[in-house]
Here is the input.
Amino acid sequence: MRPFLLALLLLLVPSLAAAQAATDQPADDQRLILVTMDGTRWQELFRGPDPALVADPHFTDPDMTEAVEKSWKTGPDVMPFLHSLPAQGGVLTGNRDVGQCMAVTNPMWFSYPGYNEILTGRPDPAITSNDKIWNRNITFLEWLNHRPGFAGQVLAFGNWDVFAYIFNTQRSGLPVNPGFGTRYPTETLTMRFALDALREKKPRVLYVGLGDTDEFAHMGRYDAYLGAMNRDDDFIAELWRMAQADPVYRGKTTLIVTTDHGRGAKTGAAWTEHGSAEAVRLDPHGFTIADPAGFPGSEQIWLAALGPAVHPAAQGSGCLGQNQIAASALSALGQDWKAFDAGAGAPLPFVSKP
Ligand SMILES: [Zn+2]
Here is the structure.
């Protein structure tokens, strides 16, 4: 063999091997970005700002009224990126005005029960508070962290210190990130950490728990709640742009965005609160508005998804459940969700293995 040919072969062989690996690999190298926006109502997501709440000086700073009215008239004005997903082959669902339906299946309608349901695929009726109790249930993040190919590849960020308990970092071995902090509107720092992690650590699974929407809503600040939604949308768009610009993520990453619970749907101050009648009965002092009926509407949620695992033609009918998100996330990663928990909710109809 002439040296020239040998050199050519040596050059070709590794690239052929790499090409072969590339065609074999995609199903094994699927990735997931999961973002939650705490207590964000479908009403603002789809309808846009409620004019009555914008006009009410109790809820919208009178200095801000005009700016809010001019900036955001519709849902797509508030969250343009999420509303662009259907045109990109994705799904945005939960708009009850057009007959869509998605809801939590836990009986509490607040955060810990909601995150537990999202991350484990089933409600746990024993979780009746947001207290810092180590979660007895195994989240799909913890399960993945012990699967081949995923160890150390699961990163979670959030600006609520209860997340560490929900993930049970003590047992799960999931890294505790500096993003876990006190529950104040500080999520810009969480966003910074998450963007840096995507760029530098390139985890296969990235979870980001954003909380400012719920914080501002409890404070009764409607303008700031809308502003947080708008900023979250920008952040999610940036995460997605960054992922699509990176060959490690491009074409093999599924994005899922959802919320742990809705908020009260009655007119007046109910939007500031959330929780079922049972939740109010268990802890009446945990609520600033006394209403033994609880806050109907706060069981209603929504979800957005985009990526190779998402098939918008298969929207299905009936009401989607929060308990279906874990199996959807695992399917998007090419994993057998039944091996995680055969009793979890089945994947959402529009999500399947890529
Ligand atoms: Zn809340």
The CA atoms of residues 186 and 301 lie 23 Å apart. The mean pLDDT is 90. The longest strand covers residues 31-37.
